[in-house]
Specification:
Blueprint (H helix, E strand, L loop, with lengths): L3 H13 L11 E5 L2 E4 L4 E4 L2 H4 L8 H13 L12 H12 L3 E5 L2 H18 L9 E5 L8 H4 L5 H4 L9 E4 L4 H10 L3 E6 L15 H11 L3 E5 L23 E4 L11 E5 L1 H4 L15 H16 L2 H22 L3 E7 L2 E6 L7 H11 L2 E2 L1 E3 L3 E4 L7 H14 L4
Parallel strand pairs: 3-13, 5-6, 5-7, 7-8, 8-9
Antiparallel strand pairs: 1-2, 2-3, 4-10, 9-10, 11-12, 12-15, 14-15
Helix pairs in contact: 3-11, 4-11, 8-9, 12-14
The chain binds pyridoxal-5'-phosphate (PLP).
The site of pyridoxal-5'-phosphate has 15 residues, from helix 5.
Length: about 400
Amino acid sequence: MLSRLEKILTDKEEIFCANTYKPLPVVLKKGKGVYVWDVHSKKYFDFLSSYSAVNQGHGNKKILRSFIRQAKKLALTSRAFYNSELGDALEYITSTFGYDKMLPMNSGAEAVETAIKICRKWGYEVKKIKENKAKIVVCDGNFHGRTISLISFSSSEKSKKNFGPLTPGFQIIEYNNVSALEKILKKDKNIAGFLVEPIQGENGVVVPDDGYLSDCKKLCEKYNVLFIADEIQTGICRTGKLLASWHENIKPDLVILGKALSGGFYPVSGVLTSKKIMSIMKVGMHGSTFGGSPLAGAVSKAAIKYAVDYNLSIKSEVLGKIFRDALWDISKTRKIIKNVRGKGLLNAIVLDCDVNSKIPWEICLKLQENGLLAKPTQGNKIRFAPPLIITKRQLKKAISIIDESLRDF
Ligand SMILES: *Cc1c(COP(=O)(O)O)cnc(C)c1O
């Protein structure tokens, strides 16, 4: 039950904001580390981490300091001028991820759009595909964002119905199916790129078979097609490595980053690639007023530096294993858990109920009551993705909350 204050606040949001989300009935006002507090100062574990945007923890002091210092000095210049932060930040970020260049944007969707533009241009100017014939292969169950072009190849009816006409030039194949990719690449000479999530987060944390990504990468090399990894959710240590692609020792031609690239302070996204590929993007061909601002530069450098300096990859890897083992343990007594899956600290439980069941929502309400926030995804799954700075002790406590909350289901 919502209190009077909560009722006033949620009503306002419902009345004045577009109703495109269905939030849990909790009103948050404060965050620190792995915790958030509601308006009555009740404390919760945040096991969503704003869809993995706050991997470095809420209110991270190091990032906050950079953010405040830079916001006071100079926030925005536009790229009409050089600024004191951008070059330095991108030197650090590109070398950390092993790329030559980055094209900075703001939201994740914009960065995916940018990668598609780079890929198409490469298709025409390097691969010599005939004008307007370039195609990009994508996967069933994908989530890449909400723009017209990105929903054009979404598998979700709700995301695209009556938003047409949709953007052509995309071909959907089955995820985690190497032969499906080979078949289409063999047949069609007009394919410029293959866009894939190393793990499908929004689709309920779908982890492909070992070797899938590296086999796809090899096929892309064989057929002269760019391999584009959308690491907006899986990147920046979430799955136990700086990039999820690194689990299979591959280097995508293009890497798309967002979310934790700012640790949640400010929307920062970008596309990483080689000097050679990026050289096809010339003056006037692309841009963004806020992309590459001094504030974005300072914040993103601090966010990546924190992830590296504090070994968030190792924490995510080690604690992720402990967490999954614990969830499997819980599943022995809590029969509602049908499956546990994930990598690092990007995990989900699959529930033994159908996708339209109310049970996942009710479990999330129970978790909330017991002090842990998580949300159902794709009907019968619940994603668990705490900030990566969580300690072993905090994780153990969260595990006991999950166990307790599942008792009556
Ligand atoms: C969140 C997400 C996006 C979109 O990012 P926005 O910042 O919401 O536009 C794209 N791809 C993946 C894999 C995501 O998880």
